[in-house]
């Protein structure tokens, strides 16, 4: 057995225990974990200091993601407490019926088993992912970026101590400490041990996992969100939504990156939309038709239309009609979130029906695509694939179903 | 663009049309397909004769799967008519709510998009898979075994003619005619075009697809089903179930392959169970403890416990208790279907809770794991993985969800 297989075996054994816990047992463990994180603050900060010292050469954005503070540690603890308060999806009955032979068939929610998470610089993922996987009755194998190795180890030590104190198997939460690519690849090939692998991080990481993994993967977090301004759009509705979707938090996947404007209202509305964006420091790029209206837009290139900027940049394209907008979006989006601004109900409904994305909005900001905003309480990521989970993934999306069938001697004819 | 990418592009375009069809449009096309198959009987049989002529050297079982008869063609047509009569899962609303900001959030069932099916000798998969994918609003790309190439072409020609006659895009159903491994690999890597790939066939095919594919795969059809005879089992219930699960159709994945008997009743019940199986021509193999009770059992080797025989063979093991049975099953099963025979409600429930398989039975034959038996009307396969679909996959499992969110200008704070 390789080291990863041994880890997988321990996770599998722990998952069988965790799957059978009561909600109270899981909640108690989550609360103990929160206490342990707060109590371990000094140790965690010291480990984080060591990580930060080695990461001095990295870009400021990266260092910011890596950095822990007393506040950020408290936020992690609060996150664990929040998840303790969420509804437990496990053992719920989705539906049940009796078949022609008199068999009682119950479709029941059960944990997935072992969840693998591969992530990058943010050490808080360690606590967040643990909270969601444990509450949904799963064991988790975490592999963080090597720059956060010491921080992650310190956090996992707190979480495991809380598990032990709760009388639960500490292998319900394991951290891959070997940072080599060979071991990462072994993890992605851990068929029979890992039931689902969720990469959390940039495009490069997600692409590598999709390419390499032979265990089932859920693709999350790639965004190239569009807003389409219909010919009946009210500028007073459109402008705040466009600005909010672009600037409220430009680094995240549900931020809008592209603006499509119907040619009938482009002359009237585009100058105001561009001015509103520029007021917030956005660089606006445009296709030829957009530049014919606002001449000083930065020319957009072909590459722009498929780029997730994660920055204060937005590209504008003038389109002939709803059909062109929908076709364009279905070709260029990452199927995450798109919005139409319209007063016309028929076109709003057509847009929602025909745009092939996880979340399709009428007259609202794409920034609402989020587990908390949806009311799920928390999320492990936003799925942009169609299998198993689509859109914000909460606790329910970390479960699967099982059929429990009860008879009194039925045989098949 | 490669040939497969072009095919994928055509499928994607067709899928966008098919996704928007009304139930009546889809049903009309399915009925026209049934008519076309019956009208094309002579052509299909001639194509099948040519395939059979080339397959003379193959094993009899293989040739039987490949062979079409007027009856089998009529069965395919009836299958299309049956699916036309099933409930359409598309556009159904799973749930809807209003969030804190006043956004109306609707979770709606939508088609997956493009489904890929890779299968082996049975040409009837062509019609069956088309029926289910079309009714659920998807386009399908089919790749059958090379031995059935001419039969599949003849069937697809009928299905496409019916699509054209219905005014629908014929690319909603496409057959990969190039039988090379290179093209099969291209199909498994068709990210952005194929939303899910479902292999239908033997273990080798499924393993190869899981190993090679970078598009999402649903693993189906691997069975190594167990029946556990509890210490409180009633032999009058146990014997008919064991015999039914083993012999009613031994070649399929929901047939029982292994029998675990509690040591407390082994001496009393095992001789009768073995005798009942032998009456139906079953070769019974046993571990040491089983052979100590029935001395002339064929000795079971380690390999037996992980083997799906698909034949009139069953291996018996005597276990100490329920715990050993559950642990054994969780280690050796393919997580398909398992059954306990018991009069004890507590142990029955524990078995259903702790056995980690798609379908867990109390006092009934594992042969019921089937879309029709469950009441789904039809099935595309039985999923043995935990993501997206588990157990029999009907029409609903060929859909995903989309969130349609409607506001009146909401922005995120």
UniProtKB/TrEMBL annotation, chains A, B:
Record bears the keyword Transport: no
A GO MF term: glutamate-5-semialdehyde dehydrogenase activity
SUPFAM superfamilies for this protein: ALDH-like (SSF53720)
Gene3D superfamilies xrefs: Aldehyde Dehydrogenase, Chain A, domain 1 (3.40.605.10), Aldehyde Dehydrogenase, Chain A, domain 2 (3.40.309.10)
UniProt keyword terms in alphabetical order: Amino-acid biosynthesis, Cytoplasm, NADP, Oxidoreductase, Proline biosynthesis
CDD domains linked: ALDH_F18-19_ProA-GPR
Enzyme Commission number, as recorded: 1.2.1.41
Chief localisation class: cytoplasm
One Pfam family hit: Aldedh
InterPro entries noted in UniProt: Ald_DH/histidinol_DH, Ald_DH_C, Ald_DH_N, Aldehyde_DH_dom, G-glutamylP_reductase_CS, Glu-5-SA_DH, GPR_dom
GO biological process, one term: L-proline biosynthetic process
Listed pathway(s): Amino-acid biosynthesis; L-proline biosynthesis; L-glutamate 5-semialdehyde from L-glutamate: step 2/2
Location of this chain's protein in the cell: Cytoplasm
Highest rank taxon of the organism: Bacteria
Domain Aldehyde dehydrogenase, residue spans: 5-282, 313-375
Chemical reaction(s) catalysed: L-glutamate 5-semialdehyde + phosphate + NADP(+) = L-glutamyl 5-phosphate + NADPH + H(+)
Gene Ontology CC annotation, any one: cytoplasm
Matches recorded under PANTHER family: DELTA-1-PYRROLINE-5-CARBOXYLATE SYNTHASE, GLUTAMATE SEMIALDEHYDE DEHYDROGENASE
Stated family: Belongs to the gamma-glutamyl phosphate reductase family.
Protein task: Catalyzes the NADPH-dependent reduction of L-glutamate 5-phosphate into L-glutamate 5-semialdehyde and phosphate. The product spontaneously undergoes cyclization to form 1-pyrroline-5-carboxylate.
NCBIfam families: PRK00197.1, proA
Name of the protein this chain belongs to: Gamma-glutamyl phosphate reductase
Protein source organism: Limosilactobacillus fermentum (strain NBRC 3956 / LMG 18251) (Lactobacillus fermentum)
Species lineage: Bacteria, Bacillati, Bacillota, Bacilli, Lactobacillales
């Amino acid at each position: 057995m390789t080291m990863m297989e041994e880890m997988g075996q321990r996770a599998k054994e722990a998952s069988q225990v965790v799957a059978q816990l009561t909600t109270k047992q899981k909640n108690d463990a989550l609360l103990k974990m929160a206490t342990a994180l707060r109590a371990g603050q000094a140790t965690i900060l010291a480990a984080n200091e060591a990580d930060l010292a080695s990461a001095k050469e990295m870009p400021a954005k990266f260092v910011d993601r890596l950095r822990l503070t007393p506040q950020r540690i408290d936020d992690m603890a609060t996150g664990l407490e929040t998840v303790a308060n969420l509804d437990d999806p496990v053992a719920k009955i989705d539906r049940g019926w009796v078949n022609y032979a008199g068999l009682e068939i119950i479709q029941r929610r059960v944990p997935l088993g072992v969840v693998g998470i591969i992530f990058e610089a943010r050490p808080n993922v360690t606590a967040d992912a643990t909270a969601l996987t444990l509450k949904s009755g799963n064991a988790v194998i975490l592999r963080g970026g090597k720059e956060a190795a010491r921080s992650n180890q310190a956090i996992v030590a707190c979480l495991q101590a809380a598990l032990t104190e709760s009388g639960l198997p500490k292998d319900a939460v394991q951290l891959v400490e070997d940072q080599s690519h060979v071991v990462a690849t072994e993890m992605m090939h851990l068929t029979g041990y890992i039931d689902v692998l969720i990469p959390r991080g940039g495009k490069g990481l997600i692409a590598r996992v999709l390419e390499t993994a032979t265990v089932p993967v859920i693709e999350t977090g790639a965004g190239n969100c569009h807003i389409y301004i219909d010919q009946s759009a009210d500028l007073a509705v459109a402008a705040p939504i466009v600005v909010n979707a672009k600037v409220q938090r430009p680094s995240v996947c549900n931020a809008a990156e592209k603006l499509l404007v119907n040619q009938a209202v482009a002359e009237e509305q585009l100058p105001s939309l561009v001015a509103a964006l520029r007021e917030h420091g956005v660089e606006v790029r445009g296709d030829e038709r957009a530049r014919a209206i606002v001449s000083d837009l930065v020319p957009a290139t072909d590459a722009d239309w498929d780029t997730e900027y994660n920055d204060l940049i937005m590209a504008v394209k003038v389109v002939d009609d709803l059909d062109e907008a929908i076709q364009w979006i279905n070709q260029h989006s990452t199927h995450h979130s798109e919005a139409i601004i319209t007063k016309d109900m028929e076109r709003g409904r057509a847009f929602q029906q025909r745009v092939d994305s996880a979340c399709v909005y009428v007259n609202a900001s794409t920034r609402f695509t989020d587990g908390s905003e949806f009311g799920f309480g928390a999320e492990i990521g936003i799925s942009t694939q169609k299998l198993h989970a689509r859109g914000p993934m909460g606790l329910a999306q970390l479960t699967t179903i099982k059929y429990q069938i009860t008879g009194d001697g039925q045989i098949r004819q």
